[in-house]
Amino acid sequence: MENKVFMSFTFYSTILILKMYVVAIITGQVRLRKKAFANPEDALRNGGLQYYREDPDVERCRRAHRNDMENIFPFLFLGAIYSLLDPSPAVARIHFFIFCVGRIIHTIAYLLRLKAPTRSVAYGVAQLPCFSMALQILLATTPYW
Questions:
Q1: Is the bond leading into 74 cis (omega within 30 degrees of zero)?
Q2: CA–CA distance, 12 with 125 (Å, rounded to integer)
Q3: pLDDT by residue (tens digit) across 77-120?
Q4: Structural contact between residues 108 and 53, judged by C-beta atoms closer than 8 angstroms
Q5: Considering the chain, what percentage of its residues have pLDDT values greater than 90?
Q6: Residue 93, Cβ neighbours under 10 Å: how many?
Q7: 4-34 vs 56-83: helix axis angle to the nearest 10?
Q8: Within 13 Å, how many C-alpha atoms sit on residue 74's CB side?
Q9: Cα dihedral value 125, 127, 15, 87, nearest 10
Q10: What are phi and psi of 37, to 5 degrees?
Q11: pLDDT attached to residue 1
Q12: 112-119 long-range contacts, Cβ below 8 Å, gap at least 24?
């Protein structure tokens, strides 16, 4: 493929999807370690209905995963459309890199309970390239509305 921007987008998107899989695996492992199952059949299989319950550590993992879905899915749309606008490959790569690193730091801060405002700063920094891409998409498509 010759679209360097799209290939860069594909690379960073794949890293982010793999990160989401890691968070899902961590969530499952915390469930098993804490014996806190979301479904009665899982609790029965792992010791009894008393383990059909919520746990604060499991819920923290779930919130981190949900936050990923709320932010990474829009990035996937914005980045794909932005890649079609023929932006500078270097500028596009910076957009993708900043978002990816911001989301990784956000997840680490969430799961390891790092001191505030680490998570908030990571979130905010990761939003900057998304707003930039959204603005550029709107500017490019405004003549067609």
A1: no
A2: 16
A3: 999 999 999 999 999 999 999 999 999 999 999 999 999 999 99
A4: no
A5: 99
A6: 18
A7: 170
A8: 16
A9: -110
A10: -110, 145
A11: 67
A12: 113/60
